[in-house]
Design a protein that fits this description.
elongated; alpha+beta; 21 strands; 6-stranded antiparallel barrel; about 350 residues; about 30% helix; Helix Hairpins; Elongation Factor Tu (Ef-tu), domain 3; 4 helices
Length: about 350
């Protein structure tokens, strides 16, 4: 316990020291900038001219291809595997028989239920005739009707157990794994096969809040795979999440048709390129122009060779550029480098880059 306390005290002291150093550094820079401003000296800075640009919102997002369907087939009957009709890599169709489970007991149950049902039907007709002539009571007839329905249900269950002994594919796809061998004893819930359908693939990517508002289900998307760099694929947006994930991104699912000749596989990487409409021209400035960071919402504007701190309203962050919604006019000169040496009112010698 004592060691833990000592460690915590050391960490706290280190954090305090770092904070003090950073504060002192900031205060020193501000003091130096203030001295420069008072003495009338100029500070060399780089600057750009605020200009409107067409905003291209096209973007790319990387993701991983997933199978359209991927399931593990479980046994529904008990018994020993007597025959396997497929192997790993086999293509199967929905409803195709994949394996046989020993059906001897299930067949006997069906035969027993059919025999019992046949006898009850004969008895029922005899009781029904006797009831009409007063030979049996209504209660006796009701009992035979109940037994008849019960045996019909038992026969249906026995036939279902017999049918379950023929393991059938629930979907079309490829046998990715075969988890049993001939002679394996299985019961309900035993894993038999892993079946993967890659006739269509799902490319799972993400988009940020500015991008996702321009997407809709059904949009066509260009797709590239690093495995096939010289080939172009395309897909359709199938799903857009209504809620952002922990990274504040919105999952987007794209369906891609995949015939056998193309060779795409689940688990491969892909890049989706989203082509979005060109936006109206807006004023855009470099991210480096902000005093501190974009969240500070302040930039230095040069007026009569003087740096004037100005509040702005940033919009979308477009890579290394930031859209400005309010606060700047086209043609104003913005400091893009050297702000650390400035305070409001500092004289500057600006090198303006076009």
């Amino acid at each position: 316990m004592k060691r833990v306390l000592i460690t915590l005290l050391i960490v706290a002291a280190a954090i305090a020291l770092i904070g003090y150093v950073l504060t002192q550094h900031k205060e020193d820079n501000e003091a130096k900038a203030a001295v420069v401003a008072e003495t009338g000296s100029t500070v060399a800075v780089t600057a750009v001219r605020a200009a409107k640009q067409e905003i291209n919102l096209d973007f790319s997002s990387n993701g991983t291809f997933a199978a359209n369907q991927d399931l593990t087939l479980l046994a529904e009957a008990s018994g020993r595997i007597t025959n396997l009709l497929v192997k790993e890599g086999s293509r199967v169709s929905k409803g195709q028989v994949l394996a046989h489970i020993d059906a001897e007991y299930a067949s006997l149950d069906v035969q027993r239920a059919e025999d019992a049902l046949q006898k009850l039907r004969v008895d029922y007709e005899r009781y029904k005739s006797s009831f009409e002539t007063g030979g049996v009571t209504r209660a006796q007839l009701d009992d035979i009707e109940f037994n008849l329905r019960t045996t019909e249900n038992q026969l249906q269950q026995a036939k279902r157990r017999l049918s379950d002994s023929y393991v059938k594919a629930p979907i079309s796809g490829v046998i990715n794994k075969r988890l049993v061998e001939v002679g394996t004893f299985v019961g309900p819930g035993t894993e038999l096969f892993e079946i993967v359908d890659i006739s269509r693939l799902k490319l799972e990517v993400t988009a940020n809040e500015y991008q996702v508002v321009h997407l809709k289900v059904g949009d066509r998307v260009d797709i590239q795979s690093s495995v096939f760099p010289d080939r172009q694929f395309s897909g359709t947006i199938h799903f857009i999440a209504a809620k952002a994930d922990n990274t504040l991104s919105y999952p987007v699912e794209i369906l891609v048709d995949n015939d056998s000749a193309e060779g795409l596989r689940a688990g491969m990487y892909g890049t989706a390129t989203f082509k979005l409409p060109v936006q109206e021209p807006s004023i855009v400035i470099p991210r480096s122009a902000f005093a501190g960071s974009v969240s500070s919402s302040q930039v230095y504007v040069i007026q009569d060779r003087t740096a004037v701190l100005k509040d702005v309203t940033p919009g979308r962050i477009l890579g290394e550029q930031v859209e400005i919604l309010h606060g700047l006019e086209e043609g104003e000169i913005i400091v893009s480098g050297g702000q650390i040496n400035l305070v409001d009112g500092t004289k500057v010698d600006a090198q303006v880059r076009d």
